[in-house]
Specification:
The protein has a domain of 122 residues: Immunoglobulin-like (Sandwich). 12% of the residues lie in helices and 44% in strands. It has two helices and 16 strands. Strands 5-6-2-1-16-14-11-12 form an eight-stranded mixed beta sheet, with helices on one face. The protein has a five-stranded antiparallel beta sheet with strand order 4-3-7-8-15, with no helix packed on it. A three-stranded antiparallel beta sheet has the order 9-10-13, with no helix packed on it. The longest helix is centred in the C-terminal third of the chain and has 17 residues.
Length: 266
């Protein structure tokens, strides 16, 4: 009877610990989030897009798109390229970036002006893909390596994407330890199978962008998310608020030459 009595007390204590506790989270004013890219592909095709959103409360699953901003890019010769709103926060323009030309992004939103300046960074072409069928920790996964050759005696930085319906892989590279050599971008995702299509993109980027993405990718790999999800710490990009510096935005304005290689898994 004593044992039964003690068990009743024990389960009573456990059940009393199941009360719901409401945690009050501090809500910060929303900040502008900018994903701005001027891309020039090797075949001469260009893409100019700026995506504008704002930060949101932690438990808000909807992305707050900005649809009423004024977005332009001005080159160093004074030519102004207006961007037109499309959908889902995207603004687009007809702009083909050129080498050795400086471009300045301007965003006017809620009577505040945000700016950033960048130049076009060239890239080495992707050359070929190597496939292994015994990769990964289990030795049973398909792994892909997309190779390119880094120019010798130049300081280069790269942003790498491997994209498919099975998942994406992102990385950044600094040629400090492979200057002038052939190197590869690595792609390994779960359930990759023969017949799957993978697109590899290699971007030439600045050292500042390399550092920006390196920190973001480190944080998201620790948290298991993506680089454009909520971050555990604020990572500042190259965009400043000219009107109110304390209300700084998040994100980056990048201008890159891009090499693309499509591969069908064997």
């Amino acid at each position: 009877m004593k044992k039964l009595f003690l068990l009743v007390i024990f389960f009573g204590i456990i059940s009393s610990c199941e009360d719901v506790i409401d945690v009050e989270l501090n809500d910060a004013p929303p900040r502008l989030v900018v994903d701005a890219n001027l891309n020039l592909w090797e075949n001469g095709v260009s893409q100019a897009s700026v995506r504008l959103t704002t930060t949101a409360p932690f438990f808000n699953n909807e992305v707050p798109f900005i649809t009423d901003a004024t977005v332009t890019v001005t080159d160093e010769n004074g030519t102004i390229y207006p961007f037109t709103y499309s959908e889902n926060g995207f603004y687009i323009a007809n702009l083909t970036p050129q080498l050795d030309i400086e471009y300045t992004l301007s965003i006017i939103y809620k009577d505040e002006t945000y700016t950033a300046t960048e130049t076009l960074y060239t890239v080495s072409p992707l050359e070929f893909v190597e496939q292994r069928d015994d990769g990964g920790f289990t030795g049973e996964d398909i792994e892909l390596k997309a190779f390119f050759t880094d120019p010798a005696n130049e300081k280069n930085f790269y942003f790498f994407e491997g994209l498919s319906e099975k998942g994406d892989a992102l990385d950044v590279y600094n040629d400090e330890f492979f200057d002038g050599n052939t190197i590869f971008g690595y792609y390994l995702v779960e359930d990759l199978a023969p017949g799957d299509e993978v697109q590899f993109n290699l971007y030439g980027v600045s050292e500042a962008y390399y550092n920006f993405m390196f920190i973001l990718l480190q944080q998201t790999s620790d948290q298991g998310g993506g680089p454009f999800e909520t971050q555990p710490a604020t990572v500042r990009g190259n965009i400043i608020n000219e009107t109110n510096p304390s209300n700084f935005p998040l994100g980056y304005f990048r201008v890159s030459e891009v090499s693309t290689l499509n591969y069908t898994v064997q």
